[in-house]
Every structure is written in structure tokens, then in C-alpha cells.
Amino acid sequence: MFSCLSLLKYSRSFRCYFPRMFQRAQQKNTLAYSQAKGNANVNRDIHNYSSDTFQPAVQASEAVNLPSPQTTAPLKREFSNTILQNLDENDAFESSDPALPIFSPTDVQERNTPDTLHGVYIDENDIDDDFAVESEINQRAIPWSSSPVEHTRLTGSMIANANRSTSTLPRLVEEASGSPTTQRPLARSQKNPIKRSRTLPWALDPFRYGDPTPPKEESIKMEPEKGYAKSEFQKSSTGVRSISLDSMPKSSTVARNGRITKKASVSTTASKIPVDSSLFRTASDPNRKRSVPSIFLSDEQKRILDMVVEQQHSIFFTGSAGTGKSVLLRKIIEALKNKHRKQTDRVAVTASTGLAACNIGGVTLHSFAGAGLARESVDFLVSKIKKNKKSMTRWLRTKVLIIDEVSMVDADLMDKLEEVARVIRKDARPFGGIQLVLTGDFFQLPPVPDSGKEAKFSFESNTWKTALDYTIGLTHVFRQKDEEFVGMLNELRLGRLSENSVRKFRYLSREINYADGLLPTELFPTRHEVERSNGMRMQQIHQDPLTFTAIDSGTVRDKEFRDKLLQNCMAPANLVLKINAQVMLIKNIDDQLVNGSLGKVIGFIDEETYQMEKKDAEMQGRNPFEYDTLDVLPYDLPDVKQKKHKLLAMKKASSISTKWPLVRFKLANGGERTIVVQRETWNIELPNGEIQASRSQIPLILAYAISIHKAQGQTLDRVKVDLGRVFEKGQAYVALSRATSQKGLQILNFSPSKVMAHPKVVQFYKQLDSVNGIPIRNENKVKTGPFK
Ligand SMILES: Nc1ncnc2c1ncn2[C@@H]1O[C@H](COP(=O)(O)OP(=O)(O)OP(=O)(O)O)[C@@H](O)[C@H]1O
Ligand SMILES: [Mg+2]
């Protein structure tokens, strides 16, 4: 009788005639599932934060009686909540008040408008379905461009703009993708049943824990291939069931012996690269390396890649700043898109904030969901999504949902979207069977709460317990090579500093004089301070400014709305440069010139002048542009006739041609390279390939100052941080962990009270740690237990 009823409940006609009841039954089902899962999860999870990194710091802090975060927390919490309640995501860490990060009542009111509180989101009704797809025209690649051809592809209205301008950019058109077709909800493959075990038996890093000094040899031998090993559950002394990654089945793609060569790694190549004597590398240069730096994933990164792509597990991977989360995420996206290359809309690339989304070429989680700010009930959100074909299709087609910077996603949003997914996809499994790939570091910037509410971290959501198969931590810090500095940053991360570290951080207040004259980038908590600092520096340069205006395009035609989407983009709408201005590259160009590279504008140049100088230099056997500014060029020529000819040619060329900044970059190895910097593209792209908004701009920003919010994710060789106005938990850690070394870091107003870790986060990571203990590591071999 009971089973007959159950059958009836799930039959098609039952669904048709009693949809609410069906929905409730599904929810009940999942709730039961969640409860069972939740219980199982008491014993859950992984860790990576061995007591090596946690405990000594804590004890040391207690020993010297430093103010703990707990003692200062209530005041700060109140303070930061006041601010956070009234901010949108872009302004969350950037007050408009120069003195203090507090807002005036009008500011608060303005910022409190519903559509700004959660930053950018897409109202699907704003998108024109009938956006005309333009055909491919003139694919001529520019031979002297500093940009890879694929970065100069134009879309939509960009083409019209580009055609109107005198730009010599190649007129390429993105191949437009058609609207996705609605399909039946697809469940996750039955071949990959969801494993509900929690693990964190992570390999301790050979560099950090085995031998503190990196091996001298050219290559570092990683674990030998073990092939497919049976998943092996082990019981720790605390009764925790853990599964070792080492015993996870490995696919052939990543099970191969991982050999990381120093040469291949960005972080280790620098000292080996000779000073670039050719200075110019143009598209026609055979030696020119294109695209992003070639990075070989470490063994732990490869395993996560495998677990996501081949084994299709739902995963949260974390790790301290600089452990390569973003590098790994980009590889995961690439691999998943390749895997689903015929149906790329199966992979939804999203991030909690517009800035993070723009950095990975995705959309915000809100935009993906198509549920606006998602403050309403699940029923309301479901009906809203159902009314919009595009949103509906997205929910039905998505197989993998990637969320970057998940530390800034609120728990309530997570739970709502999880339920929405189940209801819309008519699939009672967590998140309607969508595979989740989450990444971020909860010790960095926290979620922005709704007005009047306290923000809850996503790890506090029910979804966290039910939808994730594994929580995995990356342990090897790539950004800093100095073990001592890594240790100090770890203590900072936890908000517990030893006396020794406090002394060392205080010592870093000293002035640093850089022989080459390039100044460190200053990081500030508020946007106002950033603008003031950059403005002041630019004023001191007595040169004519040149403004580079971004060419924006995309399927969103409403300019205001598109601007809003793009306001989080690292590339500004208007870039004002002057000769001698200090700039920072915001895209990876090749192995040497990467996001964060510092340089100085030495001139503005058009193609003809560039080619002419290159030719002259070749003929004279010298390096082209070996002068401080372009002004000296013609006068340096020995022959008067030649000089005159050149001046005339330059005049002619400059009157008709677009000029680009010629920038002399400082390389990590101490050398220099001078390149012409051309436009690159940033896209805000929906899973179906539709580019909602696109910005084509010179990949440079003024490097005198940037906000801590914008610096999140960056790697910087020269940094100056004033902690005087830091007001949010995680801010000091985010700011200081951008630096690659103590040598290139100056800290003003350091105080242990500025170092605040959220107690819930400390607890979250501590729990993970104390549940599973430390995996024992023996040489290069990872042991699966027993755990302490
Ligand atoms: N496998 C690798 N080999 C060599 N270098 C790497 C590797 N992975 C990451 N890196 C380098 O380490 C630095 C930090 O990487 P990444 O920005 O991905 O770290 P992250 O964990 O995302 O840091 P954050 O939390 O600060 O955003 C970058 O310079 C990156 O190029
Ligand atoms: Mg990152």
C-alpha cells in the first residue's frame, strides 16, 4: 500500500496534477537525505592546516599576551557590520569618506537600493534575444601587436565602434552562439554515484615540511604513478572515516608521473632567464611566446583537477593565499570546457563578485541564477526563473557549476539556490544533481550581508553539508618562497601572531629604495585613498595625458546596465596615462610579463614609428628604444637626412594612426623588456557562450595605488601597505599576502589588533583540522593514516 502510494507520488500524472505536493515530497526527500548526510558530516572533512601551521602560532600568541581577536572582536564586529550592511559588493571595502570608512546617511540610502546591495546581477528581460549576429570580417592579424590574436577578437557593437575609429586593429568577430535549446533535466551520471565521505588527507608539502630548502636539481621528483588504487577508507583514532586522495582512483590523464621542472614554473624561472636583449617581441618574432605563462600543475593541483574533471566529484578546494587556487581553477575551467566542447553551456563559470567573475571570464552567481537579488522565497524565485526561458534553460542544462571566491557567498543564498535547482530540475539530489566546484579562502574577504542581517558564511549553509563530496586544501605556497615569511603570513591569516612575527612585521615599516626608481604599489582599504594617491602622482608628472577609452560591447544593449556589469572589471573605462607614469599589467602576456608586472610608460607610439625604429636599431646593431623617452629618438640619429626623413614620417604616422603605450617593464629576474601594449578583452560570459558584456582596453592600470579589494588575487613584487585604516576581517591578510617577499614589502601602522580573523572561520578550519589530525608524511610518499 505504502509503496503504491510512493509510486503514485512520483508518477508523471501526480506531478502534473499536484505539482506543489510533488515539490514538497521532493523537499522532504532531500531533507531526509540532508539530515542523514549532516549526521555523517559530524565526522566530516578534510584539513590541510596541520598543527604545524595552527598550534604554535596560537600558543605563542597566548604566551606573549597579545590581544586576541576575541577580545577586540565585538567592537570591530559592530563597526564592520554597520559598514557592510550598507554597501554594495563593489564598495564593500571601499569607503567614500577619506577619513574613515563610514558612510553618510545619504550614502547609506543610496547604497541601500536593492539592486546595488548584491552588486551586479542580470535581469534576463534586459537582454535582447534577437541580438544580431555579425559575420566574420577581415581576419588580418596585426603583426606587431603585443596582444595575442584571440584577445583582439571583437564582438557585437565593438565591431561598429572599431570600424568607426581609425584603429588598425584586426576586425575579427566572435563566432556567435545561438540560443540554447531547452532540454529535459539531466541528472548527474549514474555511473558516478555521489560519495558522501569527507576527506582531507593531504600530502604535506616536500618543500615546506620535508626539506625546508628547495632541491637544487633542475627538476623536482613528484610521487611515482600508482595507477588505479582501490578507494580505501581508514579509521582514525577519533573514529573518523577518511579517504585518502592517494588511494583515490586516478585517471590516466593525471596519474602520470608528475614532474615539475623548475624551468616550467613561473615562480622558479625568473632567476634563470637572461636579460631580454631583444626588447621587442612581436607577433612575427619566432621566439615570441604567446598566451599565458606555461605553468605545470603540482601533484596536489593535478589530483584536484582529476577529481573534478574525470571523477566528477563536487568539491570545495581551499588553501592559503598563493597556493595556486586561481591557477588551478583556470585549468579546471579549460579542461571542463574542453570536455564539454560540443555543449559548453554545460559548464557554468561564476563567482561571488563581479570582479572575480570578470577575472575568470564568467558571470556573477546572481546573474547565472537569474533570480535577481534572490531575497524572496524559493517559490517566488522558482516562478520567476520559470518565466524566463534563458534562465530556465541555464538551470536545466548546467552539469557543473563553478563558483570562485565562494568565501563571499552568503549561506542563505547558497541554500536558496540549492533548493531552486532541485525544484526546477525535478531532481531530489542536492543541487538537483549539478556538480559543484567551489573555491576560495574563508580567511580572506567575507560575504557582504543583506541590510539588517548578519552575514553567514557559505560553510554554515545546509547545502555545504549535503552537496559537497570533498573539501580539499592546497598546501604548497607558490607566491612566497621564503619559509619564514610563509609562516608569518600563516599566523596573520589565523589572527594569532607570535611575538617574533610581530617584531618582524614591525621591522617591515622601513623605507625601501629601489635602485631602478620604480615605486611599490600602495594598497588601501578605500577607493577614495586609491584615487587620491594615483591622482597626486600623476599631477607630479609634467607631461600631456593621453586617454584610452575602453570599447565596450556585448549582448546587453542597455548602456547603463552594461556599464554596471563592467564596472567591476579590472580594466577601467578610461585609462589616463602620461609618459613616465608607472603602470601595472593586468593580463598575462607571456612567461615574463604577467598580471602584476610593473613598468613605466616611455612613450606613445604608432605602428609605423615602431617598425621604423625597430629597423633602424637592427641596422645600427643596437637595441631599439634604449632611451628613457621616445622624444630623443630622431635626434640620436647620426645622419641629418635620415633624421629629417624620420621626423616627417613620424609626424605623418602619428597624425593618422592610433598610438599605443610603449612600456618598459621590470622583470622578476632584474632585467627589462619594452613592449607596445595593445588592447585586450575582458568578457562577462554566460554558460551558453553568450557574451553579455565585453570590454576591450589596454591591459594597464596606474600602479601607484590599488584597493585591497582589487588586489585580491594579485601577486606583487613591490607592495606598500598602510594598515592604519584597515577595518574588515581578512583585509590585512589579503593585503600583506600579495607580496612575494619581505624584501619587497613595506608595512605602515602595523598593529596586531589590525589582524583579525573571523572566529567562525577559525573554528571552521580548526574543526577540519582537529577532526582528521595530521596526515603523516614519509619522504615523497603520502600516507593515508593513521591520523592523530
Ligand atoms: N603549479 C604552479 N607552478 C608554478 N607557479 C604557480 C603554480 N600555481 C600557482 N603558481 C603561481 O603562484 C602564484 C599564486 O597563484 P594563485 O594566484 O593561483 O594563488 P591563489 O591561491 O589563487 O592566491 P589568492 O588566494 O591570493 O588568490 C602566481 O604567481 C602563480 O602563477
Ligand atoms: Mg586567487
UniProtKB/TrEMBL annotation:
The keyword Nucleotide-binding applies. GO terms for molecular function: 5'-3' DNA helicase activity; 5'-3' DNA/RNA helicase activity; ATP binding; ATP hydrolysis activity; ATP-dependent protein-DNA complex displacement activity; centromeric DNA binding; DNA/DNA annealing activity; flap-structured DNA binding. One of its GO terms (cellular component) is rDNA heterochromatin. Keywords: ATP-binding, DNA damage, DNA recombination, DNA repair, DNA-binding, Helicase, Hydrolase, Isomerase, Mitochondrion, Nucleotide-binding, Nucleus. Residues 178-192, 234-255 have a biased composition (Polar residues). CDD domains: DEXSc_Pif1_like, SF1_C_RecD. Residues 731-750 bind DNA. GO terms for biological process: DNA strand elongation involved in mitotic DNA replication; double-strand break repair via break-induced replication; mitochondrial DNA repair; mitotic recombination-dependent replication fork processing; negative regulation of telomere maintenance via telomerase; removal of RNA primer involved in mitotic DNA replication; replication fork reversal; telomere maintenance via recombination. Pfam families: PIF1, Pif1_2B_dom. It is found in: Nucleus, Nucleolus; Nucleus; Mitochondrion. It catalyses: ATP + H2O = ADP + phosphate + H(+). Residues 174-256 are annotated as: Disordered. Its cofactor is Mg(2+). Residues 214-233 have a biased composition (Basic and acidic residues). The keyword Nucleotide-binding applies. Its EC number is 5.6.2.3. Monomer. DNA-dependent ATPase and 5'-3' DNA helicase required for the maintenance of both mitochondrial and nuclear genome stability. This is ATP-dependent DNA helicase PIF1. It comes from Schizosaccharomyces cryophilus (strain OY26 / ATCC MYA-4695 / CBS 11777 / NBRC 106824 / NRRL Y48691) (Fission yeast).
